[in-house]
Amino acid sequence: MRYKDKHQLATEWQTLLQRTSSPVRQAVESLVLTHCVYFADHFYQVMLEDPNASLFLSNDQVGQRLNPSMQRWLSAMFSVEHENFEALVEQQEKVGQVHARIDIPVNLVLNGARQLKLAFYRQINRDMPNATHGEASVYVSDHIDMAMEIMSHAYSVANDRNARTEEAYRLFSLTQSVGDERERQRSALLDWENTLMYGVAAQQDAASLPRLASSEFGLWYLHKACHAFEGAPEITAITRCIEQIDNEWLKELHKADTASRMNALSDIRDATRSILMLLDNMLERASGLEAGRDSLTRLLNRKFLSVVLNREIEIGRHSNKRFALMMVDIDHFKAFNDTHGHDAGDSVLQQVAGILDRSTRGGDYVFRMGGEEFLLVLVDTDAEGSRLFAERLRQAIANEPMLVAGDTLLNVTISVGATLHDGHPDYQRSLQRADQALYQAKHHGRNCVVMQ
Ligand SMILES: Nc1nc2c(ncn2[C@@H]2O[C@H](COP(=O)(O)OP(=O)(O)OP(=O)(O)O)[C@@H](O)[C@H]2O)c(=O)[nH]1
To answer: Where are the bilayer-spanning segments (predicted)?
Structure first.
C-alpha cells in the first residue's frame, strides 16, 4: 500500500493542529521558547545514559550541533503560525533520512521522543493552568507523534535502499575480479611470510617483526574480506590463524631456546598454508559476476559509497582507527578534452585510475565519483600520513607522462582535497569537508593538496 504523499501529510498535520485551541497553542509556544534549552539538555543527557545511544551521540561534534538543532526543531514544531505545512513535513523527512544514513536504531529515536514528551508534561504541569494540562499534553503528544510517523517512514524508505545497496555490495565484493583478487592476496600473504622469515634470519628485534594483521593481506582481509564473506566458516578459521600468529607465535620467535623458535616457525608456516587453502575455498565459491564497477576505469562507482563509509565508521567505533577521505580531480580536464579529443581524455582517466589503484593499500577504496573526479578512502591512517600520501600521489601523477593516441605523451595534474574523518556518525559531513578542501585546492591554483 502506498504511503500518504507530502500534501496529504501536510493536510493531516494542519487538521491535527486545529483541534487545539489557539490560547493553548500560544501557551505551548511560549513554554517552548522559555524552556527549549532545558528540553534539549534533558534529551541529550538522558540519551547519553543509554550505552547504545551514546555510541551515536557522545562525539563532541554531535553535542555541539545536536543541542542547537534540537532547539530549532522544537521552535519550528510548536510555533503557532505554520505558514507551510509541507515544509514542516519535509523537515521531518530530512531528519529521518539522516537517522537512516547514520544507521541509528529506530527504538532509540522513539525513546528520545518519549523522553521529550516526559519533559514537556513536567513543564506543562509546572507552568500552565490546571484546566489546560490535558489539552496541552495531548497537543504536544500528537504533534511529536506526527513528526515521528513521518521520520519513521522516511527512515524505512532510506533504510530499505541502504539494505538493498548493502546486499548488492556484498554480492559485488564476493564477485569482484575474483581471479585477480585471489592472486593478489595470495602473493600479499606470501610477501608477508618472506618478510617475516627475512626478519627472523636477520635477528630483528621482536617489535619490528611484521604483524600479519597490519600487512597488505591483513588490511584487505579485515576491511574487505571479513565483510564480504561474513558468516562463512573460513572467516572464523582465518581470523583465528591470524590471531595465533600475531599474538602467540611471533612472540615465541624471541625465546632463547632453539626448539621453541623452530616450533613457532613451523606453526607459522602451517597456519599460512591453511590461510591460503581457506582463502581459495572461499573465493572459489564466489561467482564470476562483476557489478558495481565503473565500466571505463573499473573502479568502484559511488553506489557503494554509503555502505563502505558506514562500515569504516563502525570499525572506527570499536578500534579508534581513523580513515581519510580524499577527493581527487584532474585539472583543466575540459580543456584537455577540447584540445586532444574525448578518446585521449578517456585514456587519461584510465591511466589516472590505474595510478590511484596501484598507489593504495589492500584495505583502501578508490571510487570514481563521476566525470574526472575520484574519491579515495584511506583506512587506518592519521593526518600526517594521509597528507604525505596525497602529496606523493599528486607528484606521481604530475610526473607520469600519459600515453594518448598511439605514441603521444602528455602530462596532467590533479588537485586533492583531503580530510580525516572525525568520528562523527554521519559521513556526509566529512565528504563535504573533503569537497570544500578540493574547492580550495582549485582556488589556490590547482596541482596542490589541501587538508581540512
Ligand atoms: N573524456 C572524457 N571526459 C569526461 C568524462 N566525464 C566527464 N568528462 C569531461 O570532463 C570535463 C570536466 O570539466 P569541468 O568540470 O569544467 O572541470 P575542469 O575543466 O577539469 O576544470 P577544473 O576542475 O576547474 O580544473 C567536462 O568537459 C566533461 O565533459 C569521460 O568519461 N570521458
So the answer is: none
For residue 330, the CA-to-ligand 1 centroid distance in Å is: 8
User: Most distant CA pair in the chain: distance in Å?
Assistant: 89
Q: How far is the CA of 337 from the centre of ligand 1 (A)?
A: 7
For residue range 328-355, list pLDDT tens digits in order.
999 999 999 999 999 999 999 999 999 9
Q: Are 359 and 393 in contact (CB under 8 A)?
A: yes
Q: Which domains does the chain have, with CATH numbers?
A: 6-171 (1.10.490.10), 178-285 (no CATH), 300-451 (3.30.70.270)
Q: Is the CB of 48 under 6 A from ligand 1?
A: no
Mean pLDDT per 10-residue segment, the chain (452 residues): 79 91 94 92 83 73 77 90 87 90 84 92 95 96 94 86 72 64 89 91 82 94 83 89 94 83 92 94 61 77 85 86 96 95 94 95 92 96 96 96 87 97 90 97 97 95
Predicted model pTM: 0.67
Strands 373-381 and 322-330, bridge-based pairing: antiparallel
Task: Tell me the CA–centroid distance for residue 347 and ligand 1, in Å.
Answer: 13
Q: Is 239 in the pocket of ligand 1 (CB under 6 A)?
A: no
Q: Is 363 in the pocket of ligand 1 (CB under 6 A)?
A: no
What are the tens digits of pLDDT across the range 33-62? 999 999 988 888 888 788 777 777 766 666
Pairwise CA distance, residues 284 & 221, whole Å: 16
- Distance in Å, CA 208 to ligand 1 centroid: 46
